[in-house]
Each structure stands twice: as C-alpha cells, then as structure tokens.
Amino acid sequence: MTEIAILSGKGGTGKSGISAALATLAPKVVVADCDVDAANLHLILEPRNYLEKVYTSGQKAHIAVEKCTSCGKCMDYCRFDAIKLANGEYSVVETACDGCKLCARVCPTGAITMIDQNESRWFAGAIRNGKMVHARLAPGEDNSGKLVNLVRDHARKEAHDIQSDLILIDGPPGIGCPVISTLSSINKVLLVTEPTVSGMHDLKRITELVSQYKLEVFLVINKCDINPEMTEEIEKWAVGKQIPVISKIPFSQVWVEAMINCKSIVDWAPESELSDQIRAIWKKLIDNE
Amino acid sequence: MKIAIASGKGGTGKTLVSTNLFNVISRQGQKVRLIDCDAEEPNVCEFIRGNVEEETLTMTHIPVIDSHKCTFCGNCQEYCSYNAIIMLPTIKTIRVIEDLCHDCGACVYACQYDAITEKEKVTGSITQYSISANADVLESQTEIGIYSPVPIIGQTINMAEADTLTFLDSPPGTSCPFIATVERADYVVLVTEPTPFGLNDLKLSVETLRKLKKEFGVVINRYGIGKELIEDYLNKEEIAVLGHIPFDKRIAETYAKGDLITDKYLQYSELFKKLHQNITKQLQR
Ligand code: SF4
Ligand code: SF4
Ligand code: SF4
Ligand code: SF4
Fold it and tell me: Angle of helix B196-211 relative to helix A253-260, nearest 10 degrees?
C-alpha cells in the first residue's frame, strides 16, 4: 500500500488543484480530503456519498436558568471567560467555552450540563476511479486532529475493501497536530510551495516537521515564474536538503479556468503543457519505488 | 474601532488587503494599528517593517503534581477532560502531559490532598513594532506545540485602543481562532476569490458571521473570469461588496517579494483608498 500526502504549510499554493489533478490520473485510488477545516476537493471529484456519519468534536456547557441560584461560582472557576452575567442571569458564551466541564462540577445546584457538539459530519463516496472520504467541520468547532484521523483511518478501510494499493491524502494546512496526525503512517510526501517570502518560510517549517519521519519527500514549485530569483533560491535550498524538485509549474490562466469550472486540469485541458507536467509529476511519484 | 480582515481559507489575499489598507491609511497621517492575529503563522511583518518597541511574553499555568503528597486516588485524572494526566500507581508515577493540557484548573480543584500546584509556562509573545509616528503593528505568535492560539489572540486584541482605528488580520478557517478574532471586531471584511473553491469557503464564513450576528462586507480578489458565480451569490444574499482587486500578475509578483502594491502602483494606492472609504461608509450606516 502506498499512501501519499500532499502538503503545503499555508494555504493558497494550489495544493488542492494539484491533489485533484493527481487523483483523476490514478487508475484506482482512495482519496482522503484531510483539509477538514476548509474541504474543497469534493467540488472537483464530486463523490456520490453512500455514507454519512456524525462527528462529535467536543462539548459545551449549558446553564438551566430555572435551577441556577446565581451564586457565581461557575464564573469564578471558569478560566476561559466563558460565563457571562447579563441582566442578573448567568449564561455560557458558547464560542468561548472550551468544554472543560469544571463549571458543571462546581455548580452547587446541578444547573450546568454538558452538551455534545455534533454538527460536524464525515462522508464516504464513490468517484470515477475509486472512493473518496471527506468531512465537514462545523463552524467554530475544533479538535480537527481527531477528525483527520477518522478520515484517514476510514480511507484505509475503503482501500482495503476495493483492493486499491494507493491512498492520496490532501493534507491539512499548517504544521500543527492535524498535520502530525497525517504524517504518522504514510510513505511519501509531495510538498507544494510557491516562490514567495511566506511560501519559503512555511516550506522550511513543514520540512523540519516532515524530516522527523522516514518518508520519501518530493517538491513542486507552483507559480514558479512570479519570482524567478526566489524559485532559484528554493531549488538551491532543496538540493542542500536532498529533496528532489520534480516540477516547476508556471502561473497560468488555464489553472484558473479549470478551477472556475470545477475540473481537474487533466480533464479540463488534457492537451495542455500543464497536464503534461502533472502527468510527469505522477510518474515520478509513483514509479520512483 | 476594530475591523477584522478574514477569509475562509489561507491564500485568498487576506494579508494583501490588511497590509495595504494599513499602508494607505498610515500614509495619510491617520492614527492606525494593525494586529496580526494569525498567531500560528503570523506574516504581516514580511510586508510591513518597523522597529521593535516592546515584546511581552504570554503565559499559561501548567499543573505540577507532587508524587510524594499524591495518594493516587485518580480524582484529577477523572476531572481532566483532555486526557492530559497519566497515572501509573504501581510505579508511583503521575504526570501532566503539557502539550495536552488546556490550563482549565479542574485537576487543582479535584485534588483533596494538596498535591497539585501550578507553574507558569510561556505560550508565545506579543511584539509591538512602530512603523511611523501614527502607526504601529502588534504581532501575536505562539510557541510551537501550544494546543491553541486562542488565549494569545484574545490577549493581543485586548491591547487595542478604543479610539484608534485597528485592523485585525484574522487566522484562516472558521474554527476557534477565527471566531476568537471576529468576535472582538466591530466589522468584518471577508476576502474571497471568484472560484467555486472561494465561494464554498465564503459561504462557510458568511454562515458563521451571521450566527455571530456580525456586520460584514466582501472584497473580491483576483477579480476577472468566473466572477458571475460569486456575484450572483452576493446579490442573492444582499451582501455588500466593498471592492474588487483585479486578476493581475504584477500583484502576485509584488507580494512574492514581500512588497506592497500600494507603494509600487498608483492604481492600487487609489483602489485601497477607495476601499477604506467604502468600509467607512458601511460603518456609518
Ligand atoms: S465548560 Fe469550562 S470553559 Fe466551558 S463554561 Fe464551563 S468552566 Fe468555562
Ligand atoms: S454555579 Fe450553578 S448556581 Fe451558581 S451561578 Fe453558576 S450555574 Fe448558577
Ligand atoms: S489543568 Fe485541566 S487540562 Fe490541565 S491537566 Fe489539569 S485538568 Fe487537565
Ligand atoms: S487528585 Fe491529587 S491525590 Fe488524587 S491522584 Fe490526583 S494528584 Fe494524586
């Protein structure tokens, strides 16, 4: 089984577009969209979902007014400023509540209960050349690391079921715990960067993290022509780190058009140079065994 | 007055908008402050450079358990909602896993044997940069391995002054860090791009802001082909459009170098002045 994650540190480097293009090239694949905070890949791959599951991200406190004697103990103990007093009535500020449950424990009258946050969902569906697992984290809900794990684990199960030996993971942004969850069991990483000051900065941070795992790492520089000097600098840096730069993709209107039409670039403009580049990336990723 | 600049996803031009707005306003001599609330990956200072005025460390508490006083009753472990306490009574070991601890204080409350005290731990920093006589930047930054940037974001925004025009460069997404930022703002500027991805993210942001009952308007970045999709949506939802930034390769090039388009091109300096006026109009409504 080969598991490949596509990562970029910060958003906006064209990571999802490249993930989508690679996903449509594979003969048989299970795609896992682990960018659960802003999942987008389903717009292009259009899975027909056959599975929808509730994801409980955590809990929030709730005060039953009729039981509250306004002693103020909950407010004294809450360290997240999540209890407010307005017009003589205590209530929980949901967006601030961290779900620690301490208020419910200190309340002398049992007026506080903890309520599950279960507006988030995850899905599995069929795509043209395999399966796709994706999720939607409801606004204001956290703990995305756990959801990323769920999506990835289920992708593995689907891969087993359809006997696919390839899982493509569109990774979460950043370098925090969702990314770490993603890295823990894969074989290859495709890093997508762009030649900007922040792109370079993020690339270094994510490489630092990735190098802690035994993985084959590849690099693609997207929009390479918006800053040729920086592109060169990234290439030199990559040589030092022994990371092969397997493609440099120029800034192009065709990308934008493909995006606007919700199409993978290899479907939208199969004859284009860009599609040739994507196919070349694919070959290097897969054949480099 | 606090105005948050936000977007559903990174890379749509949020920092492009916040830094250039700040730049045109500060050049006009008005008192203005920009707060980088993207504490996990602050990048405002790649575009706006100034001298460090002051650096404040932000702190949290981490419980410390005295295994001599501990009776291994397990109460603290039961009270901890984050599985941050590991206890192995057979070898008389009990420990707090700092990376998982949310500083909620439940374990201290739970322990009846006085075995838990708290020590301070640095979670990040708030740095103030002076840019000119009338303008400064506050940058929040978390240490690597901190469970959430939310407490630092709150502390940084609390340093805003009521009578200074303040822009908040919000963290991306619609989860807690984003909410911690926009919740404290008087108005929100959402930056989007005219692609189905952009629209999908915009809808999530709009849904969240409406739940929070926040006033907001939209700036469309990389305006050009594909604009009908997003315009139809904005029309239908009666959302104010504050400005358009064209699809222009020079913008990407300038941004890539860490420069400001409002310094390099008169066209964009005018565009951002107009954007500022449009935001002001919305605020006066
Ligand atoms: S659960 Fe914790 S964070 Fe939420 S209101 Fe109660 S004490 Fe505060
Ligand atoms: S601790 Fe309980 S009774 Fe006291 S103010 Fe809070 S909810 Fe009301
Ligand atoms: S402070 Fe809260 S999160 Fe930290 S160890 Fe104690 S109970 Fe757990
Ligand atoms: S509550 Fe106190 S005595 Fe009991 S296990 Fe925890 S630290 Fe030890």
Answer: 60
Q: Which of residues 216-245 of B touch A (CB under 8 A)?
A: 222, 224-226, 229
Number of domains observed in the structure of chain A: 2
Q: Chain B: give the shortest CA distance to residue A228, in Å.
A: 10
Q: Are residues A14 and A106 in the same domain?
A: no
Q: Do A112 and A149 fall within a single domain?
A: no
Q: Do B109 and A259 touch (CB under 8 A)?
A: no
Query: How does DSSP classify residue B247?
Result: -
Per-residue pLDDT of chain A (289 residues; tens, 9 = 90+): 899 999 987 766 778 889 999 999 999 999 999 988 778 899 999 999 999 999 998 899 999 999 999 999 999 999 999 999 999 999 999 888 999 999 999 999 999 999 999 889 999 999 999 999 999 888 777 767 888 889 999 999 999 999 999 999 998 877 667 787 788 778 999 999 999 888 888 888 888 888 888 899 999 999 999 899 999 999 999 999 999 999 999 988 888 888 888 899 999 999 999 999 999 999 999 875 4
CA angle, residues A12, A39, B228, in degrees to nearest 5: 70
Token pair of A161 as six digits: 């079921």
CATH superfamily of B2-58+126-284: P-loop containing nucleotide triphosphate hydrolases (3.40.50.300)
- If asked whether residues A125 and A262 sit together in one domain, one would say yes
Interface check A1 vs B, CB under 8 A: no
Q: What pLDDT was estimated at residue A288? A: 58
* Helical ranges in A162-269 per DSSP H: 177-183, 197-210, 228-241, 253-260, 265-268
Domain of A199, CATH number, reads 3.40.50.300
Ligand 3 pocket list (CB less than 6 A): B 63, 79-80, 82, 84-85, 96, 101-107
**Is B201 near chain A, with CB under 8 Å?**
yes
Nearest beta carbon to residue A11 from set B10, B229, B258: B10
Quick check: helix, strand or coil at residue A85?
Answer: strand
Residues in chain B: 285
Domain B67-114 classified CATH 3.40.309.10? no
Out of A11, A177, A260, closest to residue B9 by CB: A11
Return the residue in B104, B155, B210 with the most chain A beta carbons within 10 A, the one to mutate for interface testing: B104
For A189-213, b where at least 16 C-beta lie within 10 A, e where not — what string?
Answer: bbbbbbbbbbbbbbbebbbebbeee
In chain B, whose CA is at the least distance from the CA of A178? B147
